[in-house]
What we know:
Elements: E1 11-15, H1 20-31, E2 35-40, H2 43-57, E3 61-65, H3 71-83, E4 89-92, H4 107-135, E5 139-144, H5 148-151, H6 157-177, E6 182-189, H7 195-201, H8 222-233, E7 244-247, H9 266-278
Parallel strand pairs: 1-2, 1-4, 2-3, 4-5, 5-6, 6-7
NADPH dihydro-nicotinamide-adenine-dinucleotide phosphate binds near residues 15, 94 and 192.
Amino acid sequence: MFEKSLLAHKRILVTGGGSGLGAAMSHRFAELGAELLICGRRSATLDETAAQLRAAYNAKVHTFACDIRDANAVADMMAAIWQDGPLDILVNNAAATFIAQSEHLSARAADAILAPTLHGAMYCTLEAGRRWIESDHNGVVLSILSTSTITGRAFTMPSAMAKSALLAMTKSLAVEWGPKGVRLVAIAPGPFPTPGATGQLHPEGRDSGPAARNPLGRVGEHSELANLASFLISDQAGYINGEMVVQDGGAHLRSSGAEDLLHWTDTQWAAQRTARAKS
Ligand SMILES: CCCCCCCCCCC/C=C/C(=O)SCCNC(=O)CCNC(=O)[C@H](O)C(C)(C)COP(=O)(O)OP(=O)(O)OC[C@H]1O[C@@H](n2cnc3c(N)ncnc32)[C@H](O)[C@@H]1OP(=O)(O)O
Ligand SMILES: NC(=O)C1=CN([C@@H]2O[C@H](COP(=O)(O)OP(=O)(O)OC[C@H]3O[C@@H](n4cnc5c(N)ncnc54)[C@H](OP(=O)(O)O)[C@@H]3O)[C@@H](O)[C@H]2O)C=CC1
């Protein structure tokens, strides 16, 4: 599909690159010649993925145990990255969400979603962008968002807010930083099952229908998202700036994906909260 050297010599940081869609993108980027830098909170997960990337593609891989909710930790990670040379591409992929009735969200619960999803991605973008601009080095920021930026989404309101804010960041900085050589793009994925997303969004008792509700009758393949991401961060997409590409099989044209939860009873929601408290 692509020239094997599409991402050769590119140094790419993927937040949350140790698991789920972040790991899928990291695999494809490494296959296309990139040097990978992956971060997350769990060192063991990062080390496992890094070993796979080295074994499969002979890739150069660095891992950073970094909680992106901590602005100082992000600054330290970026300083460490830049010691070996400039980064070329940042992929804002790490995020958190869970389903809940919004009237039951405590401030801490809302912050548990906003802190990594919005603030963490913004800290990473500002730290990378500042360095690119200071050193006159071109850069690309790809943010993994959601179709909730278009539809909103009941029962995952803080995630929808965070993703919408990151779309505003993408559009705003495309104009502000474009003249300085920094390009920003985004993907809005539909359902691409991962243990993280399925665990948070599809607990026991929820209908298992993202495939059935999809106009194409299926969920996304991780390789499909990884290929779109590879194109958008590559020089081949050099004239795309400030845009979000939706990759959801057309699902958001039909539903935000949360309507089945409108039929949940308060008893079901109470059971959901109890199950979480026990787990
Ligand atoms: C199959 C796919 C279907 C797709 C459908 C269509 C498309 C959907 C698009 C969705 C877009 C976004 C998707 C994603 O982001 S998927 C990624 C999911 N992955 C993760 O969330 C991984 C990271 N997760 C975490 O770190 C944790 O799970 C958590 C989010 C909870 C954060 O952990 P943290 O340690 O920070 O939080 P605490 O445990 O300390 O709790 C803090 C407060 O939050 C309250 N809380 C926690 N969990 C819940 C819950 N499930 N419901 C309500 N409240 C919750 C907790 O009680 C604390 O508050 P209090 O102190 O006030 O009690
Ligand atoms: N899967 C899907 O269907 C969809 C996913 N998306 C988006 O795609 C992206 C990836 O989702 P998915 O792969 O399913 O999610 P996962 O839960 O599988 O992965 C999330 C990753 O983010 C990392 N992470 C979470 N919090 C932090 C933090 N505070 N600091 C650093 N790293 C963190 C996790 O690592 P660790 O726990 O070690 O910190 C993990 O590697 C997200 O932005 C999500 O919103 C959007 C729409 C649909």
